[in-house]
User: Fold this.
Amino acid sequence: MNSPVSSREVREDGNLGALARTLRAFMQMLPILFGMLLLTSLVLAWLPRTGLHALFGKHAVLDVLLGALVGSVAAGHPLAGYILGGELLAGGVSLIAVTALIVSWVTVGVVQLPAEALFLGKRFALVRNGLAFLSAIAIAWLTVGVLGLLS
Amino acid sequence: MNARQGRRKLGGWIFLALMLVAHGLTALADAALARQALASFMNMLGEVTPVLVLVFVLMFLVERFLTPARTQSWLGQASGLRGWLLALAAGVISTGPIYTWFALLAELRKKGMRTALVAVLLYARAIKLPLLPLLAHYFGPRYMLVLSLFIAVFSVVNGLAMERLMRRQKSE
Assistant:
């Protein structure tokens, strides 16, 4: 039978061991995280200069693809996606294209791809983002379709 | 340290170095753009820091209490409906940028979390509870409800498809 002292030692060793392993994993994460923040900040600064608005409104199907593409490449707070989506909608872009943009904004991460690949594997990151891109388009069609039926 | 961890460690530093070079080159080419990017970086760093504290605490708790057997029971192949619901709920309530959660998910996966549930959690993060009122404000409450429902359904669809595709790739 274990004495109280030995069981406490075991517990402390467990806590300290877990803390050391967590610190090690956390420190490994930091360069990737700082790299991600640097990359995202560059994309965010550069994106408004691309003249995105002018690209929309040429063809309905192209708009949906473009919406999903812009959302996939864009990084940053989802709120920025809502605001951009709202602006595009007010500017005459279809709700399907705007929905594709909003959904891909939060589900596809082209900018985050290097970090996702480093942590979860290259295949995982590519397949997941590919599926999420296709899903964003499907969700956009379905959402607008259901809203049409409901109204 | 296994081969994947070693690659991740080295890859992380190379990635950071490349991004520093990219910022340096941007500063040389367009100082105003670089200043804007730096301001954005500082802003995001402020936002991410509290989330990192939460991630650290969760990583510690996972490391300390979630044994591989327990992980497999809750989030593994045999976790059933409870596993799907847990992953969905965890995705919906998780906050902060997605990349702050990759390390935790990598740890959970190492302990036996099934691929489908990792994909479900990552996809369900698209439902942002604190932002739902804003989504309703911009696009209407009906739009917000329908969209959130489809995202929840598609998180499960994505999870199933991911697992199937990853299994096929592994067997090839």
In short: The helical segments of chain A are 4-46, 52-55, 60-73, 78-90, 95-107, 113-120, 122-150.
